[in-house]
Write a structure and sequence with these properties.
Elements (H helix, E strand, L loop, with lengths): L2 H14 L2 E2 L5 E2 L8 H7 L4 H19 L4
Antiparallel strand pairs: 1-2
Amino acid sequence: MSSAARQREWRQRRYSERVPGVNGKPFHPDAPHGRFTAYVNFGCRCQDCADANTRVQHRYRKMRKEGML
């Protein structure tokens, strides 16, 4: 099994562990909340994880605009 296939399988397993959150969006109880990895790897969409994703996206866009990437 390739590395990509293992990662897809792992992510699919994590996504299946999600439960509906307070805001109605998927929430993963074991995710490291407030971190970008929780948003990407665990599929957690709680407010803390969504905010972390937004911060990373803003930083990426800023660096790209400044020619750092």
